[in-house]
Amino acid sequence: MVGLKEELLKSIWHAFTALDLDRSGKVLSHNLCTVLNVPHDPVALEEHFRDDDEGPVSNQGYMPYLNKFILEKVQGNFDKVEFNRMCWTLCAKKNLSKSPLLISDEDAFKVWVIFNFLSEDKYPLIIVPEEIEYLLKKITEAMGAGWQQEQFDHYKIALNTSREGLSAWELIDLIGSGQFSKGMDRQTVSMAINEVFNELILDVLKQGYMLKKGHKRKNWMERWFVLKPNIISYYVSEDLKEKKGDIILDGNCCVEALPDKDGKKCLFLIKCLDKTFEISASDKKKKQEWIQAIQSTVSLLRAGSAPPHKEARQKRKELRQKLQAEQEELERQMRELQAANENKQKELETVRKQLEAAAARAAEEEKKRLQTQVELQDRFSLELEREKMVRQKMEEQVAQKSSELEQYLQRVRELEEMYKQLQEALEDEKQARQDEETVRKLQARLLEEETAKRAELEKWHLQQQQTIQMTEAEKQELENQRMMKEQALQVAMEQLKQLELERKEALEQYEEVKKKLETAANNTKSWKDKVAHHEGLIRLIEPGSKNPHLITNWGPAAFTEAELEQRQRSWKGKKATST
């Protein structure tokens, strides 16, 4: 709740500073209670804002009243966009620039809300150059343009010479002037601002059209999906007017890629505790992007971490605080060195005064010596020697002090050079941290791609093993069928050989019967001729065959009909056995 209170205070601060609370404080409080869903008593509200000096607002100021009667009652069940729009309405007319801008009022409102998110937690609110660079980079990337680092460095140098950062209205003027979006039309800039607003303020991590399979009708419908840190909402269209449902995310959710089926491609599955959702992306790239985005969101939920943009903002703030502490420490050391230098200068000044005083005393003595030169020649000689010795010692002391002074100045120059090197090292460290963050993100992305590819390779390997096992089983089945057919063929060959032998035996029997018939026919003919010769017209009456004549492969009348039917039944039984 502390973080929520700080976010609310920034927007309220703009409205607070733009209004005359003696006349409009009641209106601001009433609007805040309405948009924040805070219950309030109109009678008590009138009591707090009565015109005499006995009311709490008059005695204690507006902020204690705001904290006690409004902010402490906020539960979080309010529309943040509606709250910010109310505060914007109260302060925009007074502060927004009158000069024409390349962005609309709606875009200016979104930039104002983003400013409140990125600004420092101190009043009056400003946004520091590092956060300005971060915001302009995000907008430039959303427009698909290249970032002009050199241009921003010149702007940053000019800004640092005059102040620490920009106010909300100066930031709106900067973006609306088109200084860092040259060549882009209003619509492109507006879409870029809206994309950054959705990510930083509405916590939209990803959004786009996909197909969703229904739970009841099992039909596929196109929906506009919006991924946030703990929920996926899907709508009829991207205008977000008709919401069709939510997918609640937690640490137990998981995402799985599915093979193409039923004419649908690029499928993946979102598994939750109570439901499973089957989704179809437009292409493989979108499918992989959505899977990675949902997996990252679930990982953050498991770890209890904040959304990526909020965590990055906190890290940037901590880095700035660390660099500021180091800068203050360097300034403290420089102040200590400067104080030590001043002390040395005072010591040298004291020595110089002592030398001047000694020189003055020496001149006085010299004058006295000239005046008493005749009377005190011997004494003067002794004094002169003593003065020479004193002068020599003083010169040695002066030389020593001069040497110490030169060493001290050399040390000061070395410390100044060290201070410059430390500043360069801090800049190098800052760039290295940025490079390290970039490499870390790249490594994380490569690791996720490698994990996905490895899982896909393992899946292919498992499918290949199953296919090999099925092929081996089919091969064994075919081998068994071939053995059975070979056995059946061998039995059929043996039966064929047996039939061949039987046919040969039948032919032999047929030949024997044929010879007997020929002999009998010859005998009958001879007998008939004799009867005809002796008896004239006498003709023998022979009985005819009652059965039809049968012709087989073994000749005519080789078998009777009963024998032939018996053989046919035997052959059919053997054929059925072999098959």
Alpha-carbon distance between the two ends: 86 Å
> Helical region count?
15
| Strands, total number | 9
Mean of pLDDT? 81
Structural class: alpha+beta
Q: What is the level 1 CATH name of the domain at 206-306?
A: Mainly Beta
Radius of gyration from the alpha-carbon trace, in angstroms: 55 Å
Full CATH superfamily name of the domain at 206-306: Pleckstrin-homology domain (PH domain)/Phosphotyrosine-binding domain (PTB)
If strands are numbered along the chain, what order do they take across the biggest sheet?
Answer: 4-3-2-1-7-6-5
CATH level-3 fold name of the domain at 206-306: PH-domain like
Tell me the overall shape. Answer: elongated
Helicity range of the residues?
Answer: 55-70%
Description:
It is a single chain. The chain has 579 residues and is an alpha+beta fold. Among the domains are: 1-95, no CATH class; 206-306, PH-domain like. 68% of the residues lie in helices and 8% in strands. The protein is built from 15 helices and nine strands. The protein has helices at residues 2-18, 21-35, 42-48, 56-60, 62-69, 80-95, 105-118, 129-143, 149-160, 168-176, 186-200, 284-303, 308-371, 377-535, 561-578; strands at residues 206-213, 220-228, 231-235, 243-248, 254-258, 267-271, 276-280, 551-552, 555-556. The strands form two sheets. The protein has a seven-stranded antiparallel beta sheet with strand order 4-3-2-1-7-6-5, with helices on one face. α2 (21-35) packs antiparallel against α6. The longest helix is centred in the last third of the chain and has 159 residues, at 377-535. It is elongated and about 220 Å long. It starts with a helix and ends with a helix.
